Amino acid sequence: MRYSLPSPSFKYLWWLLFLVVLYYSFSFSKFDVFALVEGFSNSLALIEEMIPPQFSNLENIINLTFQTVAIGLWGTIIGSILSLPVGFLSARNTSPNLLVYYTFRGLVNFLRSIPELLYALILVIAFGVGPLPGIIALAISTVGLLGKFYSEAIESVDQKPVEALQSTGSRSIAVFRHAIIPQILPLFVGYNLYLLDHNIRVAIVLGVVGAGGLGVELYSQMRAFNYPQVGAILVVIVLAISLIDRFSAKLREDIQQYKLLAYHTKTKDLILLASTFIVALVSLKFLPIDTSELIRGFKNLLPLIGEFFKLDFSELKTYVLLMLETVAIGITGTAIAVLLSVPLGMLMARNLITNFFVNNVAREIANFLRAVPELVMALIFVSAVGLGPFAGVLAIALHTTGFLSKFYAEAIENLDYRPIEALEAVGARLTQTIRHAVIPMILPLFNSYNLYILDRNVRAATVMGVVGAGGIGFELVMRIKLLEFEKVSVMILVILLTLVLIDYFSGYLRRRLV
Amino acid sequence: MLFLNNINKSFGKKKVLDDVSLQVKRGEVLALIGPSGSGKTTLLRVINGFVLPDGGDFYFDGTKVDFSKKEMLRNIRKRIGKIYQQFNLVERVTALENVMMGALGKYDKGIDYLMTSIGFFPKEVKEKALYLLEYVGLADHAYTRVDRLSGGQKQRVAIARALMQDPEVLLADEPISNLDPGTSRKIINLLLRISAEKGITLICVLHHLYYVQEFNRVVALKNGKLYFDGPQSDFSLDMARELYETELEEVYFEV
């Protein structure tokens, strides 16, 4: 052969494996180009029916929006408080012994692996329909996330300032206050803001299974084919989410620029803390909960938990097949998201496309896709393309395009221009420069994002079935509603095992990419 | 080989090159010096067509360069090798691949252009790249990823990449500013050896005066103006002091 391969030939085996997996994913998730075209026109027709949105019920919608925010806020507050001890006990440097360390680490990983919606589904059985199961579900899943974030922050504390203060003869309280708190507090607050943002989004979706908030209304209007009302709710959702998104981004930026949580901002910090407190108290007004409900719920919950341990493996094969379909939905959705995100991300990148208008339109599209929760998208697509995995694929693909395109655009904007200039200086043409300088720099980054999104999408696909958009979720809801918890727990085991496997595999690939 | 006639260039209000004229013969070796911001880098970027001068003419090998003709600029770039302060290598790929990239300009037509665009190089490129890596003293690191190499090794890869072009002119923009003193000495010696053995015209921007004595000819810029152009022996200590507006010792010891 006259030409030599640029890289070792085993690399091409990976590509082959990748194509095989992709082929089976597409066929397993019943992806179909004709259905895509038809689904597209159906979706447009559906959206057309939502226009103009009917705001006659606006007061109720606004009330429910506040309830959703209140659910997210209280879920975050309770989860955050619970996460503090969990974080310290699952951090290597503050955990009393290895047994405690591994126990809590395992607990945190377990809690994180189970989708919030699944907690809510089970809790709704015990606590009844309403915001309470939503808050508890969010609190539990918050411990899974924040426990990990906290412990990582604690593990990354720099010992040098601690040693410096100790060497001045300071008391340990003073060392803690001046050397450790300033290191971890901004991180902790940043994570809480992120979680609040995340939990409010999730709270919208939790309504679909009856756990309170805007989702309940959305789901019932959707089922009543009352599309103008659905349109109104969607408008409110998108507005509320982008508002919250911007607010928390601003706060996080302030923290990074030492405009908050720094030595000279104590008054501002106190005002912020006090206003959070007041908002939390006021938001209770939107949460019709009484303590007897709480106690009754926990009384109901205890016997349920016992049921979970009576594992019934008789239908394991069905679950495995459904899980394969779930994985296929995640992979196919990710693949389509990648295809959509490459052009969208390029349009968003300010250094590639210098047209301000084009940049902003592309950015707003991405913001919109991120703002509509994928389960809400799935609801719409189920109406447009019918029940089944295809609706789930579309919802996941569109929603995560909002994330991926943003990551891609940032990667393109941060591209190192020096090697590119060097190749131009050699006299290389544009296509050669792209192949030899741009792609080697950008592809590993893109792929690392893709794997991260894949992980996330398989997880998301496990609950797509709740609205009938394919995967194991539908069977899961059925069994929970039939109170067959001995089967539910086997399904959860299958889900967890698959997620761990995928997590391990994508982690392995990510490490290879570095 | 190179003839710059009254080149002017401004970035905004700042005049970076102010009526600079320079004539460089084939095979000549010269050091380009001057304080930060005096226009050294911009002058090099005019020569390989990355900066479009506001006024003045530039002749390359007897032909007047038309900066609006992209193909013409590309054809000139093919004949000019450049090495950089930051090396400008693609960090994630092997040293060998980086060196082979130097040949991209040559394979810009027909099937070879197509193949190099999708990532395949002709066999002879690989053989030559391996030879050049050996020539710059990196035979053992052909298949090492660039981000695992030291600064001096990276600069050797960059030099091999430039040599891959079979350049007639070699532009070095502060090639040793990121290197330690011992490595700097080796890189300067390598550049001078290459120029002598292959008859390549060498223009080397130096941030410090320490290595100026190795070059026959010195060109100094100050505030965009040509401050000195002549044999190194004529460049007096007082001139250096005035050029850098500082005590001479500092100039020499700031290595």
Give the topology, please:
The complex is a heterodimer of chains A (514) and B (255).
Chain A: E1 3-4, H1 10-28, H2 33-50, H3 58-89, H4 98-113, H5 116-127, H6 131-155, H7 159-166, H8 172-206, H9 214-223, H10 227-256, H11 266-283, H12 291-308, H13 316-348, H14 356-371, H15 374-385, H16 389-413, H17 417-426, H18 430-461, H19 473-481, H20 485-513
Chain B: E1 2-11, E2 14-24, E3 29-33, H1 40-47, E4 55-60, E5 63-64, H2 70-78, E6 80-83, H3 95-100, H4 110-118, E7 121-122, H5 123-135, H6 151-164, E8 169-173, H7 181-198, E9 201-205, E10 217-222, E11 225-231, H8 237-244, H9 248-253
Parallel strand pairs in B: 3-9, 3-10, 6-8, 8-9
Antiparallel strand pairs in B: 1-2, 1-4, 4-5, 10-11
Helix pairs in contact in B: 5-6, 6-7
Give an overview in words:
The complex is a heterodimer of chains A (514) and B (255). Chain A has 514 residues and is mostly helical. Chain A folds into two domains: 241 residues, MetI-like fold (Orthogonal Bundle), CATH 1.10.3720; 232 residues, Orthogonal Bundle (MetI-like fold), CATH 1.10.3720. Chain A has 20 helices and one strand. The mean pLDDT of chain A is 90. In chain B, helix 5 crosses helix 6 and helix 6 packs parallel to helix 7. Chain B starts with a strand and ends with a helix. The model of chain B has no long low-confidence stretch (mean pLDDT 91). At the A-B interface, strand 1, helix 17 and helix 18 of A face helix 2, strand 6, helix 4, strand 7 and helix 5 of B.
Distance between the termini of chain A: 31 Å
CATH superfamily of the largest domain in chain B: P-loop containing nucleotide triphosphate hydrolases
Envelope shape of chain A: globular
- Report the span from N to C terminus of chain B: 32 Å
**Unreliable spans of chain A:** none
CATH superfamily heading of the largest domain in chain A: MetI-like
The strand order across the widest sheet of chain B is 6-8-9-3-10-11
Provide a quick synopsis of the model.
The complex is a heterodimer of chains A (514) and B (255). Chain A is mainly alpha-helical and 514 residues long. In chain A, 79% of the residues lie in helices and 0% in strands.
